[in-house]
Each structure stands twice: as structure tokens, then as C-alpha cells.
Specification:
Elements: H1 3-17, E1 23-29, E2 32-37, H2 47-57, E3 60-65, H3 73-83, E4 90-96, E5 101-106, H4 109-113, H5 118-127, E6 130-135, H6 142-153, H7 155-169, E7 181-186, E8 195-199, E9 204-207, E10 235-237, H8 243-246, H9 249-254, E11 261-263, H10 265-285, H11 293-301, E12 303-305, E13 312-315, E14 318-324, E15 332-338, E16 343-347, E17 371-375, H12 388-404, E18 408-412, H13 418-431, E19 440-443, H14 446-455, H15 462-469, E20 481-484, H16 487-495, E21 500-504, H17 514-521, E22 528-531, H18 540-546, E23 550-555, E24 558-563, E25 567-570, H19 580-589, E26 596-600, H20 604-618, E27 621-623, E28 630-632
Parallel strand pairs: 2-3, 5-6, 9-10, 10-11, 11-12, 16-17, 17-26, 18-21, 18-22, 19-20, 19-21, 22-25, 26-27
Antiparallel strand pairs: 1-2, 4-5, 7-8, 7-28, 8-9, 13-14, 14-15, 15-16, 23-24
Helix pairs in contact: 3-5, 10-11, 10-14, 19-20
GO molecular function: DNA binding; RNA binding; RNA endonuclease activity; RNA exonuclease activity; zinc ion binding
Binding site for Zn(2+) 2: 244-245, 350, 601
Organism: Archaeoglobus sulfaticallidus PM70-1
Amino acid sequence: MGVDEYLSELKRKVAASLPSVRVKNVEFEGPVLVIYVENPQELAESGDVIKKLAKDLRKRILIRPDPKSLKPPEEAKEIIRQIVPEDAQVTSFFFDHENGEVIIEAEKPGIVIGKQGVMLREIMKAVGWSPKVMRTPPIKSKTVDNVRQFLLSSREERKEILKKIGVKIHRGSFHEEKWVRVTFLGGSREVGRSCYLLQTPESKILIDCGVNVSNIQQSPYLYVPELQPLDSIDAVVITHAHLDHCGLVPILYKYGYRGPIYLTPPTRDLMVLLQLDFIEVGAREGNPVVYESNLVREALKHTITIDYGVVTDISPDIRLTFYNAGHILGSSIAHFHIGEGLYNIAFSGDFKFERTRLFDKAETNFPRLEALIMEATYGSGNDFQPARREAEERLISIIKETVDKKGKVLIPTFAVGRSQEVMIALEEAIRTKKLEGLTVYLDGMIYEATAIHTAYPEYLNTHLRDMIFHHGLNPFISESFTQVDSSSKRADVIDEAEPSVILATSGMLNGGPVMEYFRHLAGDEKNTIVFVGYQAEGTLGRRIQKGWKEVPLTSNGRREVVEVKMNVETVDGFSGHSDRRQLMNYVRALSSRPEKVITVHGDESKCLDLASSIYKTYKIETRAPMNLETIRFV
């Protein structure tokens, strides 16, 4: 059945299910079935009808009001302000023309919603727009605002893009032969440039497209015949926003890809932030610039966000569902249901099988799972991390010792994930007087990344949400934290006599403002550098961690050798990756026992060790493939 015939059939079913609603049109926009209605107010009382229709049609459904039925944004704002009590403290409106929604940010969202949603229904009847209420973020994020404004300004182009994607998804299935295979294009027996190609006779799905941040063999094998031409790929799926998983996504659009990128809403915003910083840092450090900011924007136009647990068609024979991975904000385990029950395969991305201060532990409950492709960053038999509380106490002890010597503590950290974990630990230590009179400086993108965390509280764990919104205790906006947002402020922090703690990017010392601090602080034995995250082989961070006493640095084309006299410490336990025990426990805890487990994203010995141990312990078939290997699953 062709797409037009399929849509005609769906339109008949929709009209039969919604007899009181004047359906103007039905069309696909990406994976979503959009139903245009002339009288959306009739649906204000019929949420269950829409849910039942979506279940019957097995489609994600979006009800979009006919543009003629929508009040102009400025008029709609005034009407909403008249409806909503002042006590709600509405701070902003964002009109999403793409979805026919008005996002209302308020200090007290419960008042905007009203008892049993009565206020929302009143708003929809009055203005036509479907209201979505969000709590005003405690820290305003420029990235979130810029992404929203860009998507708004390009909504007409996006609509055409989504229509083309919708036609491709629903083009029908034409192959009788059934097979499933995965080609490993990067991140196998190594950490960095994660990239995997999932193929069936009908579909090509690219999972992650990262860069190797150690500058050694930076790119995945994107030139292999299976990927050519790039526009033959049905979809790109991004598990999370770290550059080793998403850093080279924009380059796909340079060489012909025009398809969708599926990811969670926080991953989208963080990905834009980190990719733009990747360009800026590369230019500043004199590294080759592999793409420009216009390609970041082009990629953004093709993004389709999916929340956890939402089943989404992404090709004629593949459905995607994201589950919490517990690694960083919005990180996902990508689960693919292939065919009508033919095969189920999950890509773990990076995951943490332990509740942290920020996130719940990684999800283990899948309806079906025949194969799992999982990380092995800490896969060796002796890769055990201390408990989080023990790690926090050790960090505080190191800081105290350094402060007693009137020194400074430099903590290189990723802007996303580890920074916020360390911030919460330090805030508690200062608030409870374990550390006194200490300023914590945040440099690089840490402050902006933290702002994005506050924009998506639903992705944080319940305890942290309650602490922020119900007890009025937000660790992210503590007076102990000071943002460093200029080179002159950075120089002041370096020169001041008082001891301090400095959190700065990047986490592996391969660029970013941390380099300036290290250059000036390394030569003084009163100071300390503390590594709280993974240091990949070949990075400056790994060399310092190994004990190098002299390290070469390059800045603006000038090379110099820096003597390392500062104290070098590593505090394990803050990692967003699962340690060996957690990796093994994760496989055991899976609700559906897989037939195969494939280990990736780890040094060669760690991938092999973990694969061997899973086989011996659970009698599950395992593999640790090399890059460019292909494994057939069906």
C-alpha cells in the first residue's frame, strides 16, 4: 500500500473515531500522524479518545489546530494572562507553531494547570493553542532559548523536512527475506568515535556518530560501502550528548545526509552546546575545523525529540524506544524492535547502573531483548569503583589538605554530568561546614550546561527534584559558586592569593579553559589537580595521571613544555560509567535475558575480559568485535 492510500485509510478511521470533530487533514510529519482539526476545543474534554485512537492505529498522534482557529500569539498571551491567576507568576510564553502548542513557564505551574486540568481546558477553548506548562528554570539557559527560537524561525522548512521523513518512514516494506546485522564503525575495542550501523533489508540506522577526543584516528569509518550514499541512511539515533557519541553528526550533512536525528530533548540542547564549543575550542587551539556552525544548525533542523518510553516508528520495519541510561542528562539506552516481533536489540550507549545524586540508575525492564550491545569502559576484572559517598569524602579530604597549604584545587571535568555531580557534593560539604569559606569557580560551559539541567527537571531523580522544587534548596544556585566567563576573570582567579576550587573544561585536558589554569598552576607544589572522570589513552590527562613530570602544550601555534610540580590525584567513584560489578549486575538484572551480548566502548583488554566473564557467568553468547566487523543476528 502506498503512502497516499495509507493516509486515506487513516483519515477514514480518524473521522469515524472523532465524529464531533471537524477533521480538515491528516498527514505524516516524521513519525507522527498529525490530525488537523477546525474545532480543537471539542477535544479539550476528550484526552482519553485520543489515547485510544493512538493505541488502535499504533501511531504517535498529534492534534494540530487549523491555523485559522488559533489566536495570534500576542492576543493569546493577553487572554491567558487574564485566565491564569497572578499567583502563578507566569514568566514567559513560547508559541510552538510546529505542534500548535503554547509553552507557559511559571513559578507555580500547579496553579496554571488547575484542579484536574480545568485551567488548561479553559485556555485551549479560549485561544485554540494547546497549553503545555513548565516550571520556570532557576537558571536561564541561553542554549535552550536559542534552540527554541531557531526551530521557531525555521518551522516552515522543518515542516517540509518532516513531511519527507514521514513519507520515507511509511513507504511500505518490500523485501520478503529477513535478516539483521550490525557493522561496527567506531568505538569497538577503544573509547571514542562511537558509531554503529544497524541494517535490515529495508533499513539503515546509524547509532551515534562520535569523534575521538584524543585526536588519534578521530573519525569513525564513515566511508565504508555500507553507508554510501549517506542519504540511503533512514535515521541517525544519538544515545547522549558527549562528543565521543555525537561530535561528528554535523559532518553527515556536509556529505549528503538529509534524514532525521532521533534523541531526547535534553540531548538535543546539550548536543548543540557541545558541538559549537568543539568548533570554538578547535579554532582556538589551532586544530583543523572539520565543520562550521552552519552545519550544526542544519543538523538541528532535522532533529526529532522522543521522551523515555515512547515507541516511535523510524523506518518501515523498525521501532525505537529510549530508556533512561543514568549516565548524563537525557542519556538513553536505544531499544530497537525490528519487524513484527522478528528481533529486539538494544544499544546501551554509556550507562550507570547505580542511583547517583543526579539520576536514577539505568533501566533494565524491556518487553523483549534478544541482543544487547553494551559499554565496557570499566570492564576489567579489577575495575571496581568506591562508593559515591566514599569518593566524595576523599575529594573533600584532598581539598582540605590543599587549602591548608594555601593552594588551589583544579578539577578538569566534562561540562555535562560530572561537573554537576561534583557541584552537588561540594555544595553539601560547604553547607554542612565540612568545607568553610571556600569559593568554587566554574569555567567553560559548566554554568550553561547546569542551566540546561534546570530546564529539564523531569530527567533528574526524584530526590533532587523534590529538594529543588518542594524544599527550596537548589544546590546549583548556591552562593558558593562563581561563574568565570572571561579571560580577565580567569586571570584574576589564577592570580588571587586565596585558596579556591576550580572546575573547568575539558575533562581530559584536550582543550578548553582548563589548559590556561593548568599552565599557570602546574609549577607550584602547593596546588593539586584532581581527576574525577575517565582519561582516554593518548590524552594529556592520561599522561599527567600516569606521572609525567614534563608535558608539551601547544597554544596559538606556539609549543612549550610545562613542568608538573603540582600534586596529582585521581578520585574514582564520580564516573558516570558503570564499574565492573555494575556491568555484570546489569546483565543479571535484565527483565528479558538476551541471547547475545556484544561489548564495545572500552580498551581492547576490557572488552575481551567483560565478554568472557559474561559468557562464563551467565552462559550467554558474547563477542568483542573490532572496528569494521559485521555481526549477523538473524
